[in-house]
Amino acid sequence: VIQECYVQNTAREYAKIYAAEAEPLEGFGEVPEIIPIFLVHRPANNIPYATVEEELVGEFVKYSVRDGKEVNFLRRDSEAGQKCCTFQHWVYEKTNGSLLVTDLQGVGMKLTDVGIATLAKGYRGFKGNCSISFIEQFRALHQCNKYCEMLGLQSLRTTHQKQRKATTLKSKNLPNSSTIKKAVPKKARDPRGFISSEH
User: Fold this and answer.
1) Where is the composition biased (Basic and acidic residues) (predicted)?
2) N or C, where is the chain less crowded by C-beta within 10 Å?
3) Could you please report the per-residue DSSP string of 100-159?
């Protein structure tokens, strides 16, 4: 329960900094807000700890899910969904890819019950309530929108493609048995056409 409060309230602090950068931008408009969550100790109760937060009234929407695979049209097409995507991108960039806020959901621009994925377990005190693979999926699947551009965020797709190309080139440059055979001069072959074992 303490970790749950820490996750949501830390994400809330990131959201406040994001809002301070985004709100002054012309045309950006309203910014998503992560509502605070409070830990209550009730020693006389059978369940001594509980969390309390503001009640959100209206249509509850999941703008993102933990595994990043769900196709959500409200996320892609709505203003709140696009701004949640941009918030995720902004946090990812601000933490140099070490942290990602996940499970963005709520009513309109008010969000609750968020998750956090970290590149390394224990990063900034997080036990890692979301898998590292969510960061990899986000990096591969995120599509920048006009709000990402307004904040001057770097395209993750370009970065991801560069990383994939570099990996592909490295694996292509690694010698395999067929390239080694072709590279051996004819003099190194014995009369039967086999490669000499002495190099």
Assistant:
1) 187-199
2) C
3) EEE--EEETTEEES-EEEESSTTGGG---SB-THHHHHHHHH----HHHHHTTPPPHHHH
Of the candidates 67, 77, 103, 190, the residue annotated as catalytic is 103
Helix (H) or strand (E) holding 41: strand 37-41
What does the pLDDT read at residue 34? Answer: 96
How many whole angstroms from its chain centre is CA 46? 38
pLDDT digits (tens, 9 = 90+) for 144-190: 999 999 999 999 875 544 444 444 444 444 444 333 333 333 444 33
* C-beta of residue 128 within 8 angstroms of C-beta of residue 66: no
In the annotation, is 103 catalytic?
yes
DSSP 8-class letter at 36: P
- Encoded tokens for 154: 């770097």
Write the DSSP string, 42-106: -TTSSS-EEEEEPPP-S-EEES--TTS----HHHHHSHHHHHHHHHHHHHHHHTTTSEEEE--EE
CA nearest neighbour of 91 among 5, 36, 151, 164: 151
Pairing verdict, β 105-107 and 110-112: antiparallel
The superfamily (CATH) of domain 1-151 is MHCK/EF2 kinase (3.20.200.10)
